[in-house]
């Protein structure tokens, strides 16, 4: 078997293992008492992860700038400041700091996937709302932020891939996990400042020359400073590929949600 064939087989095997883990967690969750992860009240048969009250409490309740995440008074693409340079659009259903942050972190660091389906459902609803309002256009494909093979072996799954797979099923959009690779096993971004994050990810990703799409949604679990998605987006944009960012939550700067802007 050639080295290329071995690499392709290893990627397919890793993908299969991620799917088995994903559905294994779902089956296990289905056998346990159905309680809200936040308030621990019993859930009815149509609820999962969070009860309706806790879910609605944690979601955005006012228009959000798709650039910086600031609260604005009207449902527009950008706040006044972001209209000047129109940054990449980040689509998320909630703030990382409004209650769901610990459960999103638990997906990545503890393999606890109970919150993943309901938050993906909330993200799908947010995407549909923005599309209906003409503020975004659906992409051709969904692309998860890749993990380095070493990190994938250690963790056993890529949370961005699991989220992208869920979104792909719900939105009937193709998931493309070939072509974009992480060629450097960088240290974790958590705890690094902005400059350190950029240096840490410099030249960390590679995009194959034959990538064939013009509009993509780049998927990650959470966007904080945006360094990771920016590093990847630049590779696509250098080839005139339009990129929007989809995530379960964004960790905006403190106090930003209390600021309103026309």
From TrEMBL:
Give the CDD domains listed for this entry.
PRTases_typeI (cd06223)
Q: Which Pfam families match?
A: DZR_2, Pribosyltran
InterPro entries in UniProt: ComF/GntX_DNA_util-trans, DZR_2, PRTase-like, PRTase_dom
Residues annotated as domain Double zinc ribbon: 32-83
Annotated family: Belongs to the ComF/GntX family.
Q: Which PANTHER family match?
A: DNA UTILIZATION PROTEIN YHGH
Q: What is the protein's name according to its record?
A: ComF family protein
Origin organism of this chain?
Shewanella cutis
């Amino acid at each position: 078997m050639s080295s290329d064939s071995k690499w392709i087989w290893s990627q397919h095997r890793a993908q299969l293992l991620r799917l088995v883990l994903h559905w294994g967690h779902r089956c296990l969750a289905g056998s346990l008492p159905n309680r809200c992860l936040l308030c621990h009240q019993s859930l009815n048969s149509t609820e999962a992860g969070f009860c309706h009250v806790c879910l609605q409490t944690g979601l955005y309740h006012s228009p959000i700038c798709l650039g910086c995440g600031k609260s604005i008074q009207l449902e527009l693409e950008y706040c006044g400041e972001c209209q000047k340079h129109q940054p990449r659009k980040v689509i998320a259903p909630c703030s990382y700091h409004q209650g769901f942050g610990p459960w999103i972190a638990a997906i990545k660091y503890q393999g606890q996937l109970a919150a993943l389906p309901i938050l993906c459902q909330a993200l799908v609803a947010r995407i549909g709302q923005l599309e209906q309002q003409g503020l975004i256009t659906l992409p051709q494909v969904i692309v998860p932020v890749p993990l380095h093979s070493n990190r994938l072996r250690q963790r056993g799954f890529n949370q961005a891939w699991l989220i992208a797979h869920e979104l792909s099923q719900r939105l009937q959009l193709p998931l493309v996990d070939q072509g974009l690779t992480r060629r450097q096993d960088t240290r974790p971004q958590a705890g690094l400042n902005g400059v350190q994050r950029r240096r840490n990810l410099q030249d960390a990703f590679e995009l194959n020359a034959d990538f064939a799409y013009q509009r993509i949604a780049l998927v990650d679990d959470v966007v904080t400073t945006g360094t990771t998605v920016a590093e990847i987006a630049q590779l696509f944009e250098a080839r005139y590929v339009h990129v929007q960012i989809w995530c379960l939550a964004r960790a905006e700067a403190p106090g930003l949600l209390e600021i309103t802007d026309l």
